Amino acid sequence: QVQLVESGGGLVQAGGSLRLSCAASGLTFSRYDMGWFRQAPGKERECVAAIRWIGYSTYYADSVKGRFTISRDNAKNTVFLQMNSLKPEDTAVYYCAAAISSSSRPTRGSNEYNYWGQGTQVTVSS
Description:
4-stranded antiparallel β-sheet; globular
């Protein structure tokens, strides 16, 4: 049984930082692209960052480039999202997801991901 469990969300003031973690089990983690998505109330789910299973190339949404960093530790079956210079518009539920991919680029479409975590709330106050 595949499980993705996010942690690290919370309430932070604008300009602050948070580090999200996603611990995976029940899958061969090193063979999966990993992504972080977010969904704010009334908005569609969007991919904010993704990292390939091989080569570790990354993708970032324009809205988070230069502020967020995705990384992975295959020895610990964990993917991270370091979020700096947080803004109120970053407020959302953040989800991690895993995708088997044969693409040469990190997977970024939500419909391409096979497994999802339950989400963790990030709230940025102004």
